[in-house]
Amino acid sequence: MLTQSDQEALEEQTLAPYAMKSRMTRGREHPIVADGIRTDFQRDRDRIIHCAAFRKLEYKSQVYFIHEGDYYRTRLTHTLEVAQIGRSLARNLRLNVDLAEAIALAHDLGHTPFGHSGERALRRLMADHGGFEHNAQGLRVVERLERRYPEFPGLNLTWEVREGIIKHTTCYDHPAVNRFDPDLSPTLESQIIEVADEIAFNSHDIDDALAMGLIEAEDLREVPWLWELWERARAACPDARGSDSIKYRALGQLIEMQMLDVLKATEANLEQAGIRSIEDVRAARRRLVTFSPGVAANSAVLRDFLMRRVYRHPRVVRMITKAEEFVERLFNLYCRVPEQLPLDCQAQIETDGVHRVIADYISGMTDRFLLEDFARAFEPTLYLRG
Asked: Which one of 8, 68, 357, 382 is at 20 to 30 Å from 269 when CA atoms are compared?
């Protein structure tokens, strides 16, 4: 049996000198007794998987709302894809796989129902009440809102995992960081999850858009480098009767190509910046885990295509418009009549203020629960007894 000490010693022997070792953690807000068989980051991973907010991700939208069908990615399946890509990148760079996985599994815990449309609505509604941003909300979830332990609120995660949540920065995420050494760069494990997030949605948003009929394969000609991958996949599958085998081969190549590029670009960045320790990583004034300039430019072209042809498709815009309306009407109802909130939420109003309590409550809803709550509140012939 490998004990905790054995595993920590193995990290010292096998991980790169600039990797974050478990023994180097800054620890937790509330000290706990080691269980002897898991490192601190393994323990964090397990706490995240077993928490309520993680389970709710199954019924929170990624791009397409869950009532559109069972095939499309949810916030949970997206999270699992990010974790899988992040683990592979971390292992190949000799970084701490357990830390990377924990950050990946937690990175979207603060997301609202209905994806970014729900977040946009809460951001508007909370503009004069402290704001709303899903990374900051994720930190709030793991530090305060989860209730699993009688001794303290939250999950009591390590400093490094919580830092990875709040500093998660992508082309769509730009959190304001005022804690966790805001002027210092996060760990390489944290930076890996930022890139893994982009690799995941670059591929699965194409897959889902094709399956939903928002775009056709021929539309990918607008992204020449992606069309080249598609044609290469078609040539490798000459006997394919349907398009699915071609699609999956092309998207698999897309993920593999981006991952290989990140590995090569990151190794070059580390060498060029003279990174030899975790302190060097912290002091670096730029992200070290990146795409190469060429692939970064290609990724920008793909994002533009997805924005024009998928995220702003009339069918998607209709869903977004309705979702924001649902969130806004419920928020305003609870502001007007906070006595309709659950009793445990009402008990927090004196401490956190009514607007923050309502934002916590709504952001923690699944798509399905929000729709049911909306019906109870506004449909006169439904849920008549409340």
From this structure: 8
